[in-house]
Amino acid sequence: RTDEDWWRTAVVYQVYPRSFADSDGDGIGDLRGLIGRLDHLEQLGVDVVWLSPIYPSPQDDAGYDISDYQDVDPTFGTLADLDELLAALHRRGMRLMMDLVVNHTSDEHPWFVESRSSPDSPKRDWYWWRPPRKGTVGGTPGAEPTNWESFFSGPAWTRDEESGDYYLHLFSRKQPDLNWENPEVRDAVYSMMRWWLDRGVDGFRMDVINLISKDVDLPDGIVRAGVLGDGTPHVMNGPRIHEFLAEMHREVLHGRDRKILTVGEMPGVTIEEAQLFTDPDRREVDMVFTFEHMGVDHAHTKWDLLPFDLVALRTVLGRWQEGLAEVGWNSLYWNNHDQPRVVSRFGDAGRWRERSATLLGTVLHLHRGTPYVYQGEELGMTNYPFVGIEDFRDIESLNHHRAAVELGADPEQVLAALRSRSRDNARTPMQWDASPHAGFTTGTPWLPVNPDHTEVNAEAATADHGSVFHHYRRLIELRHTDPVVAHGDFTMLLADDGTVYAFTRSLDDVELLVAANFSGERVRADLDLTGWADAELVLGNVEPGAGAGPGMPWEGNLEPWEALVLRRR
Ligand code: ISL
């Protein structure tokens, strides 16, 4: 294998810095806190750290609203701390991937301040400014240039009182969208990216990067519920998206002395699009984050809860495995800072917390693609027991609550959806030990620590050989040592089974069989085990294994939430 595709055998660990480790007692995590915890990551064995935004920011959207791309927010530390983190990671053989948020800036970024200052500003065209809709009075509902709803509720346009014009913001009003049609904008972004690469960083995770090319006619969207329309067909995977990414590759990534890792976060991306985005010959990005499997438990929006459906999950994941088998590459994730905790979502966070957390890890890490571990996932961290709206901090949750209640929804139902789906579930502090704030801070944490930290914490998990942590460590090691895990073909089994998830992987003369029982009952997997009698048990989450081993072939029985991996030649 060449250095060109080192990332195919890699595992990425996401750090959400505000909630990882606080070194100075202000209740918010920081870079020095992270530097102090690198042993944990090294022991886990991950190859890359993806760092969520640490740039100067008014923190309207927890750092995804950036006011200076080339510095560090004092809350998180200094550029010198960042350099030290980078050096410390490199010394330990790990790489650093930065978050690149360039669909929008903060409204406090000097570019936007300048753009807003006058319709004649040389930077006016760096953002999407439009007059009120013809025949309307600016500032009144309906006068917005389009009917689009923002991802964070309410109209996607805000009026600037001074000029009377509106600016576009697909997210909060403090996150104005950059106009990528303007070549100066693209140049400014590329030069900023080169600056980070010259500093030594190893990759970029590109925030909502498939939203940067808009349909310049800005047509209205279809109105489904309420009064606002769905603008997404006019902004997702827009007409120039491939052109922009290829240009970025040429201008920034091509010809470097090392292979830079790129992953595009792409809500609404289809497999057909992903094949184009990740085809190595097209030189756009190495992989994308799809959202399709995150949608299997919602109806129209993420707030309309559906029960977990294993068949739906398998159908989606299976299609992506197949779709990117010949060309392109998958990213694999259950969790990030925008998703509720997977063990509370697809597993059983009560009686079978550890068992289901290790099952979920096994299933994900044995797929073909690059796995991402979100901080705390390797401990089996769970959703927080939120009660009232005052417990939430996330702008998406707060805005949705306000908008839904205004439209007449039952507040108790809105809260029920937030408890299960709010992004704050992912954002409670990392649980290091059993002490009052879980070893995260000596001060008051910005979001409370989950009360289960007395049991679920890194100190306890690293000391226990049978923990979720050590299971994840073994999964990561397996990817590093057994080429079939990274490079083997993937075949899904049991297409219609609502309980057992099973598949095989194969490379040359080696074949793996993975079987996982997504239920709290003992079951028998309906698999044809001919030829597996002498298989070796590589990994399992039930001690001492389900009877598989030399002279003790596995007969297809699975304990509650049991997952196992067999290998044959
Ligand atoms: O959180 C979501 C899932 O419901 C999405 O609406 C989310 O906002 C979308 O996936 C884009 O996410 C990224 O960009 C946002 C930021 O708030 C998220 O944290 C980030 O991951 C805007 O920058």
TrEMBL record:
SUPFAM superfamilies: (Trans)glycosidases, Glycosyl hydrolase domain. NCBIfam families: PRK10933.1 (NF008183). Keywords: Glycosidase, Hydrolase. This is Alpha-glucosidase. Gene3D superfamilies: Glycosidases, Golgi alpha-mannosidase II, Oligo-1,6-glucosidase, Domain 2. Residues 14-427 form the Glycosyl hydrolase family 13 catalytic domain. Belongs to the glycosyl hydrolase 13 family. CDD domains: AmyAc_SI_OligoGlu_DGase. It comes from Nocardioides alpinus. InterPro entries: GH, GH13_cat_dom, Glyco_hydro_b, O16G_dom_2. GO terms for biological process: oligosaccharide catabolic process. It comes from the Bacteria. Pfam families: Alpha-amylase.
